[in-house]
Amino acid sequence: MRYDSLYFAFFLGLVWLAFVLLPWRGWILLAASIGFYAAAGVRDSVLAAIIVLSNYGFQFLIERDRRWLYPALLLDFGCLAYFKYRVFLATAIGFDVFTHDIVIPLGISFYVFQLSAFLIDISRGRALPFHSLARFALFKLFFSQLVAGPITRWRQFGPQVHRLFDRKLVVRSRLIGLGLALCLLGLVKKVMLADSIGPIVDAIFRDGPGGAAAAWLGVWLFTFQIYFDFSGYSDIAIGSAYLFGIRLPRNFATPFLASSVAQFWQRWHITLTRYLRDYVFVPLADVRMASRRYRVSQHFFAMTLTMALCGLWHGANFTFVLWGALQGMAIMLAIMWSRYVRAPPALIGWAATFGFVVTTSVFFRSPSLGYAFEYLGTMFSLRGGFPHVGEQALSSWQLPSDGMGELLIVTGCLALLALHWLEARVSSLQAVVLIWRFDGTFLRMLFAGAAIWLLLLPKMQDNPFIYFRF
Amino acid sequence: MWRKIGLGAAKLLAGIVAATAAVDLLFVVISGTPLRWVLPVPPVALYGPDPDTGYRHRANVSGLWLTEHRSLITISNLGLRDRNRNVDHDGALRAVVIGDSFIEALQVDGSETAVAVAEQILSRDHPGTEVVNLGLAGARPAVEVARLQSEGRRLSANAAVVMLYVDNLLSPTTTDDSEFTGYRRDGSGEYRLSYGFRGSSGYRFRTSLAGRIYYWLLDHSQVARIINARKNSGVLADWSDAAAAPAQRTQPSWSCASSLVDGQLALWRDGTPSEAHALATAFIRDLAAIRQSRDIPIIVAAWNIEARCPSLAAKRSALIEAMRARIERAGLQFLDLDQRIVEKVGPAGVAKLHGFGASFGTGHLNVEGNRVYGEIFADVLRPALFAQP
Fold first, then answer.
1. Does A158 lie in the same domain as A197?
2. Residue A87 is assigned to a structural domain of this protein
3. How far apart are CA A79 and CA A90, in angstroms?
4. Is the ipTM of this complex over 0.95?
5. Cβ atoms within 10 Å of B332's Cβ, excluding its own
6. Residue A459 to residue B238, Cβ atoms within 8 A
7. Would A14 be classed as within a structural domain?
8. Taking every pair of C-alpha atoms in chain B, what is the biggest distance, in angstroms?
9. Going by C-beta distance under 8 Å and a sequence separation of 6 or more, which residues neighbour residue B372?
């Protein structure tokens, strides 16, 4: 069930009514979440049930003996590897045993990370096991964040789950207006922006850009498409959770305004970055592998490996791995630069960061490494055409040849950046205070009504949320 | 307490009205600026009721067409997918081209349709010559005949090209008159034009006062267009939530299966199936009657008979001869449109005449396709118009 569909709006409305009118709030959300996930199909539901039940059992074992963590993680990541990476891994080591790829179970990348974080936290004494299976299931299955995050920790979400079932969770009415505003913002990003940009990006990457300008346009638009798509989804997820009084962590903080790559990753997919930092990078960087004088090298290696894994998490393709490794190396270079060299002016730092993010997005979007390098060649060589015209293309993608068309495209690209800047201004504490001040029936109906109109807008083509594939 | 409930309801209503107004304003702004070429907008509602064909374009309606390729559409003062013009043409020659969505060509600018191209070519040598676009999406043979009867007469056409999408004669929808004009058997067993749609509740609504208010809203409100588009596509049409891959390009290929020609050959040479044969007879008979009563040349442009397959050449030749014989025997002219297209652009060039962007190679005619079709129409209309006594 997609968040940008009328089905989800009806579903959300019904669940909210039941939540408000009936006393069993935790159970209502659990039933709704199970129903929500059941719509994904029997196979996905059975797999999710197996993982929930096994992790429910493992949490008690881990509390008693932390060595149980390893089989638990093996099971969780084994499922992830089997369903998401089996063809990739088998091919990488030279075994072509799996002839057919399979559809990745809905949200598996996200809930495996969330459960593994929970189990590791238990082993570290930073989380407490759920004695109630229902509470544990809601922690894992809550429909707002089930499919594509935010990846929540026990300390953020666990206590809220307990308060829901203990009927102690106070649903502050002012959160409802804010939640609806976030849902509307997310829909604007998804329906108005990401889905409008998507077909142009698809055409450029499918046909191959006809020149350097077309290549830059394609990757520039893709960078914004994926931002609007995923941050739009995250806004809807956080906003719909607010309707039930649940606070989920923020996932984006206008990342394209970052003035260093390290800062970019503190503002882009924040919950994933924190997961990787706490459960992958820190253990790798802290482990005693080398003498003190090679510490920097170890950190460099740890960061590159962490981010390469981050890339692999996005998809079973070497393009993602290289994309992640480049991010890791850039983060380390940025950190070392700030340590040993005077920081550049903010504008230069921003331009370099944004340029790096846009350029490396080519690896994220390209179907293969060969294609990515040819695309980069077209971007930087200023040559007239793209050598690797798509197999099904009749010609490469060309920019409009009239001056007015080019001017409009440049204006549109800059407008995307301006919108991002505007979002930073609007997503401020003052804006939240303003919504709280005027919160009431009128404002809520204004937000909900506008959201419904956007959902009613007929879609010209199928544009599922990009991160639903991961 | 009642006052409190009333106040709450008023706020609720005010919120909905404000949201509707804000969304309407947003789409008005988008539609009025270059943003309309990229951002989503509600599609224009072009069609209204018509007693002759069941539906037709509504005069002077303007808005964005979104399917396949965005284009800004303005329906003419005469209610046609055409430029504005007077009904009288003061002695200058006028031809009409009748067909379905390929002739209607909503995917390109009004000046780029095949019919507009034909007019531009013909009027270069013979100033004042007009070629009028009577294309209408979904027009079946019965609708084409009805349209030629009504619009052809109104416009006092001097020549007509009627597109014959050959598969239509084998399609059961040709005999369905519940929404549009269809062919139905009369008391003597012959197929005649039938207007069953006139008694349908949908048609009665569209021609009533409520229907006129509905069309007024469609012309003046963006949210009314959203509702209309949603009604047409299905209220919950976006249920396809599987994380599908982005739409892939359709392969620009064609089939050379013998069955494509066999069915048509059986129809035109052997007269089977008898139902389709009777339909073809009625279609040709009605066109011949118009030609005779109006004394104008009518060119039947047979279309969708694959001309790119050497393996089908013999069968195709037999089919074309059978069609030509029957159509010319009725006093009509015959045009093998597919063959003319292949002669102009070559077998490999045909796909490039179709589709836009992600669907390049398949679908409706693109700008280049309309240009090629326009040149062919000009070629066949020139002798039809100017060789007349």
1. no
2. yes
3. 15
4. no
5. 20
6. yes
7. no
8. 86
9. B114, B341, B344, B345, B353
Best residue in A411, A442, A459 for a mutation probing chain B (most B CBs within 10 Å): A442
Task: Answer with the one of A99, A129, A164 that is the final residue of a domain.
Answer: A164
Instruction: Out of A131, A314, A388, A420, pick the active-site residue.
Output: A314
Nearest Cα to B346, choosing from B364, B370, B372, B379? B372
d(CA B376, CA B368): 13
B141 upstream amide cis, omega within 30 of 0: no
pLDDT in tens, B340-351: 999 999 988 888
Residues of B in contact with A445 (CB under 8 A): 11-16, 18-19
- Cis preceding linkage at B273, omega within 30: yes
Q: Scan for tokens 């005949």, then name that residue.
A: B145
Closest residue to A445, CB basis, from B19, B34, B351:
B19
Beta-bridged to residue B54, according to DSSP, are B50
Domain that holds residue A118: 24-164
Kind of pairing, strands B182-185 and B191-194?
Answer: antiparallel
Indicate if A153 and A218 belong to the same structural domain.
no
Query: CA nearest A257: which of A431, A428, A419?
Result: A419
DSSP string, A216-247: HHHHHHHHHHHHHHHHHHHHHHHHHHHTTT--
Tell me which of A164, A198, A223 is where a domain ends: A164
Task: Tell if the CB–CB gap between B18 and A393 is shorter than 8 Å.
Answer: no
Give the tens place of pLDDT for each residue, B11-63: 889 999 999 999 999 999 998 888 888 888 898 889 999 999 999 999 999 98
For residue B282, the distance in angstroms to the closest alpha carbon of chain A comes to 39
Inform me whether the pLDDT recorded for B249 exceeds 60: no
- Partnered with residue B243 across adjacent β-strands are none
Shared-domain flag, residues A137 and A270 = no
pTM: 0.83
* CA–CA gap between residue A451 and residue B15 (Å, rounded): 12
* Tokens at A283, concatenated: 């253990």
Q: Do B12 and A441 touch (CB under 8 A)?
A: yes
DSSP secondary structure of A343-390: PPPHHHHHHHHHHHHHHHHHHHH-SSHHHHHHHHHHHHH--SS-SS--
Order of strands across the sheet that contains B298-303: B130-133, B94-98, B159-165, B298-303, B333-336
> Coil, helix or strand for B249?
coil
* Phi, psi angle pair for A98, to nearest 5°: -100, 110
Residues A69, A192, single domain; the answer is no
Q: Taking chain B, what is the end-to-end CA distance rounded to the nearest angstrom?
A: 86
User: Which tokens in the block code for residue A323?
Assistant: 């994309």
Decide if A100 is catalytic.
no
Q: Do A212 and A153 share a structural domain? A: no
Summarize the confidence of residues B151-174 as an average pLDDT.
88
Residues 6+ away with beta carbon under 8 Å from A177? A435, A436, A438, A439, A440, A443, A444, A447
Q: A19 lies in a domain?
A: no
**In this complex, do B223 and A453 lie within 8 Å of one another by their Cβ atoms?**
yes
- Structure confidence at residue B136 (pLDDT): 93
Close Cβ partners of B64 (under 8 Å, ≥ 6 residues apart): B31, B36, B41, B43, B44, B70, B71, B72, B73
In a domain, A2, yes or no: no
Query: Which amino acid belongs to residue B304?
Result: N
Rounded mean pLDDT of chain A? 85
Q: Do B23 and A442 touch (CB under 8 A)?
A: no
- Does one domain contain both A234 and A351? yes
pLDDT at B238 over 80: no
**Chain B residues within an 8 Å CB radius of A203:** 357-358
Contact yes or no for B369/B354 (Cβ under 8 A): yes
- A116-162 pLDDT per residue, tens: 999 999 998 888 899 999 999 999 889 888 877 788 889 989 899 99
| Domain count of the fold of chain A | 2
